[in-house]
Design goal:
20% strand
């Protein structure tokens, strides 16, 4: 899959993309999502200085990967089986965030997530919903996904 960047491929943009992917990989390693010492992370689609969708794979298993999203959105990951393209992955991230936002309203889920039930989880839910809706809008923009 070739990398698709919108707005040019400057060195500054490449550095921003690499920084976001590196941070996403660090988080995935911390969570045990990727476990190899050697990890390949490559961008698959980028909205300059806003969002990068990439593929991350353990060196020991070159046949599977995780989709990762990072930037001005929550850093998140999905199994490669749920999407075959970055656009499909973006759609899945948006759906996932909508579901997560709804779950944040459930007191039992709040406890599981370690959220303080005395603090309003409305803020978390609203932010996730906003990010999901913005990502859905990007997914629907044909101009951003043309080869």
């Amino acid at each position: 899959m070739s990398e698709k960047m919108h707005g040019g491929g400057s060195e500054e943009m490449a550095a921003w993309t690499r920084e976001k992917l590196d941070k996403a990989v660090e988080e995935m390693m911390r969570l045990g999502i990727v476990t190899d010492v050697l990890v390949e992370a490559r961008p698959a689609w980028t909205l300059p200085n806003k969002i990068v969708i990439g593929q991350v794979r353990d060196a020991s298993d070159p046949t599977t990967f995780k989709w990762v999203i990072s930037g001005e959105v929550p850093t998140d990951y999905l199994d490669s089986a749920v999407a075959s393209t970055p656009r499909e992955a973006a759609r899945h991230f948006a759906m996932k965030w909508h579901l997560d936002a709804a779950r944040c309203q459930d007191p039992s889920v709040q406890k599981t997530l370690g959220l303080d039930p005395n603090q309003s989880s409305d803020h978390i839910g609203r932010r996730l919903t906003e990010k999901a809706e913005a990502l859905f809008a990007l997914v629907d923009d044909e101009n951003l996904w043309r080869d």
